[in-house]
Amino acid sequence: MTIAPACPVYALLLAGGVGIRSGLDRPKQLETLGGKPVLRWSIDALTALPGFARLTLVVPEEWRNDHAVIAGSDADLCVGGATRRQSVANALVEIAEVPADAIVLVHDAARPGVSADVLARLIDAVAAGAAAAIPVLPVADTLVARAGPRAAGAPVDRDALWRVQTPQAFRLDVLRAAHAQWTGAEPTDDAQMVRALGHDITAVAGSEALHKLTFRDDIALLESLMGIEMTGSTRIAVGMGYDVHRLVTGKPLWLGGLNIPHSHGLSGHSDADVALHALTDAILGALAEGDIGSHFPPSDAKWKGAASDAFLAFARDRVAARGGAIEHVDLTIICEAPKIGPHRDAMRARIAGILAIKIEHVSVKATTTEGLGFTGRGEGIAAQAVATLKLKD
Ligand code: MG
User: Are 178 and 104 in contact (CB under 8 A)?
Assistant: First the structure.
C-alpha cells in the first residue's frame, strides 16, 4: 500500500506528560504493555518506517534517564516544555537543520497502538501534496449537549463529528510556520494550529488500537485492542543468577546500578557490578538463553569498564523480544560492608528504571556471612538473584 516517500520522514515523539490522571506512580509511557515498555511500541513502529530518518523523543526532565534507557540509540532526547505546544516547539528546535520539505510525524507516546497501515496512510497523504494529515474515527455513541451538572440537553449530530488521534503528519515547513505564528489558546494537537494558517487538513482512517493510555485500566484494554495475546497461552519461568567479584582498593564501588562511596571497589572486566550481573543472569536463566559471559565475553575489549546497566537492559530487551514480561526480581547482596540498607530504595528504583517495571516488583535484600568465608573477610561481594517472567508458551 505504501509508497516509499521521496523525502525523509522525521518523527517527534511526545512523552513529556507524567500522566497524573493515570493512577500510576510514574509516567504511563514507562509502564509495561505486552512485554515491553509503552514507549517502546511507538519507537519500534516509527523507526521501522520506509524513509525513516530520525526520531526526537521529548521527555520530562526528572525521568530523562528512564526514557534514555528504553530508547537506547534509536532516538535523540530533548526535554519537554510546560505545555504540549511548547514540547513540540522544543523538538522542532532540535531538528532546525532538517530541510523544509521533509515529512514530520508528531505522535503521543501514550498511544502505543500505532500500526504500519495508519502510518502509511498519513505519509502517503503528505507525500501526495497535503500540508497535513490526521487519523480520525467516527463517533459511535449518541452525543448530547450538557445542560447542567445532571441534566442532558439537546442531541448533537454525531455524523458531523470525528475523533482525532495521533500520529499526525505534516510538511515540516508548514508545522514550523504554525508554531511560529500561533496566538490562540493552548491547542490540544498540532493540526488545529496548521488549520489556523488556512491549510486544509486531510483526514485518513484512524484505528481503535490508537486508544490513548489515560487510566490504569487502559493497559488491559490496549492489550486487547492491539491483539496482544498474553492470557491463556503463557507460562511462568523462574531463573536464578549468582555472581562474585573481588574487592580492591583504588576503584569505585558500583552496586545495584549505583556508585556507592566505600573504601574499596569491585574488580572485573566491566564496572563489576555484581548485583546487576546476578540479575542479568537470573533473567537470562528464566529465558534459558545462556549467561552474561556468553553474550558479553570478558575476552571482548568492547566491554572493558562497561556500565553494567547495559547488560541488564539487554536481558530486558530479550524478554520483550520473546513477547514476555518481567513480573518480579528478588536480589540478595552478600557482604560485610558497605551497609546496603541506606541504599536499598535507591537501588530498587534504579533497577526498576532499567527493567521498566514498577518498584514494587523489585526486591533488594542484604545479608552478611557472620565474618565467615571470603565475604566475611571482606575479600569480595557475592550476589544472588531470582527473576520471575511471564513468557508465551
Ligand atoms: Mg560478574
Answer: no
Q: What is the structure's pLDDT at 309?
A: 95
Ligand 1 centroid from CA 242, angstroms: 9
> Which residues, listed in sequence order, are joined to residue 208 by a DSSP beta bridge?
none
Q: Mean pLDDT throughout 297-306? A: 86
Ligand 1 midpoint to CA 280 (Å): 10
The pLDDT value given to residue 273:
98
The three cell numbers locating residue 323:
513477547
Q: What angle do CA 263, 266, 270 make, to 5 degrees?
A: 140
Buried b (16+ CB within 10 A) or exposed e, 328-354: bbbbbbbbbebebeebbeebbbbbbbb
Reference 279, options 354, 335, 345, 346; nearest CA is 354
Distance 67 CA to ligand 1 centre (A): 26
CA gap 87, 379 in Å, rounded: 50
Predicted TM-score (pTM) of this structure? 0.63
DSSP-derived 3-state class of residue 258: strand
Q: What is the pLDDT of residues 323-366, one digit of tens each?
A: 789 999 999 999 999 999 999 999 999 999 999 888 999 999 99
Q: How far is the CA of 282 from the centre of ligand 1 (A)?
A: 12
- Angle at the Cα of 328 from the Cα atoms of 325 and 334, rounded to 5 degrees: 135
Q: How far is the CA of 305 from the centre of ligand 1 (A)?
A: 12
Sign of torsion over alpha carbons 292, 294, 299, 300: negative
Tell me the CA–centroid distance for residue 266 and ligand 1, in Å.
10
The contacts found for 149-152 with CB under 8 angstroms, 24 or more apart, are: none
Half-sphere exposure (Cβ direction) of 171: Cα atoms closer than 13 Å: 18
